[in-house]
Predict the structure.
Amino acid sequence: MKKIENEIDGLLAAGRGLSEAEFDKLIDTYFSSKPENEKEKIGESLLTIQLSKLNQIKEIDKEITFLEQLDGIERYLNMAQFSKIYFGKTRSWLYQRLYGWNIHGRPARFTENEKKQFSDALLSLSDHLKIVARELA
């Protein structure tokens, strides 16, 4: 199965930059060279790859949704202080996760606990702003 996955990876890499018709021809040539029993295994591998890619897309969508939910609030915060006070981390660490920058070849992401911590930090800051606003009124 690993051999087939490697072949598919090579095939997909070879297909980058090709037109749809050229890619279809590449796939047809590949499949026509394979015996019937191997074609079923190839189909299973392709399904596994598609499911994996779909899960990756869902994770990226969650991260984009998280950033969209902030709705530009980062413009009003000193992100260096926010990150230091609420996470004990640098501003770079925070931006890496907000924007999904690649760290060691992988996009940085907030863990579920860090997302909760971020939410709690915003609520804490909100409470503090409300207290100050009431005192000023």
